[in-house]
Specification:
The protein has helices at about 5-15, 40-50, and strands at about 35, 70, 75-90, 95-110, 115-135, 140-155, 160-175, 180-185, 190-200. It has about 200 residues and is mostly beta strands. It has one domain. Strands 1, 2, 3, 4, 5, 6, 7, 8 and 9 form a nine-stranded antiparallel beta sheet that branches. About 35% of the residues are buried.
Length: about 200
């Protein structure tokens, strides 16, 4: 799998943000959040954007080099440090184990018409696995990640701080022409759950 396909595959796997509905009502503000609050819809969107940070930005067919620095789409940077190791590898298949801390420095992420300016130090912990199989022009990608940490945010004239702890799973199979993903956990005081299944379409 060449490095351009690797990069596009992982990036495509995490493009969708802010879809689905919360399965629980908004929670009462607690110790995990302060200042102005994000809405449930904004929390859904931000969970999707955070899920797209880190590993999939790599432009390498194997374990990305660490530390790494990512330019955030709207300005600022995300810095990653930790360990990404290849735990399984054979012809046409590989599996990475991820244990990375991602620090955000005035990192601006945009989704659903909202700009989120985020700062997180020491940062988010991203753990889990990414595995893929390539057979000719077909590939299968399986992502299983958890992201947790505390951060401060600025959204318009609102600012505050809160925490996130959610899991993200995804499967893409070009041979079966399917793409499914699920995100579930807690962000900024909201219990969130999203599941989507559909047909795979290269972009």
């Amino acid at each position: 799998m060449n490095k351009r396909i690797w990069s596009r595959t992982l990036a495509s796997a995490l493009l969708v943000a802010g879809c689905g509905d919360s399965t629980a009502p908004a929670s009462v503000p607690g110790p995990e959040e302060s200042g102005d609050r994000l809405t449930v819809a904004e929390s859904h969107t931000l969970m999707g954007l955070l899920a797209g940070l880190g590993v999939e930005e790599s432009d390498s067919p194997g374990a990305p080099e660490l530390p790494f620095t990512i330019a955030c789409p709207g300005g600022g940077t995300a810095l990653g440090a930790g360990m990404i190791s290849t735990i399984e590898e054979s012809e046409g298949t590989a599996k990475l184990e991820i244990d990375v801390e991602i620090e955000l420095r005035d990192c601006v992420l945009r989704g659903e018409g909202v700009a989120f300016a985020l700062t997180a130090n020491p940062g988010f912990e991203q753990t889990g696995t990414v595995a893929w199989t390539v057979d000719g022009l077909d590939f299968t990608l399986d992502t299983d990640l958890r992201m947790s940490g505390e951060f401060s945010f600025d959204v318009g004239d609102r600012s505050g701080s809160c925490s996130a702890d959610f899991t993200y799973t995804e499967r893409i199979s070009t041979e079966q022409n399917v793409r499914s993903w699920a995100r579930m956990g807690r962000l900024c005081g909201h219990d969130l759950e999203e599941q989507v299944a559909g047909m795979w379409s290269a972009r």
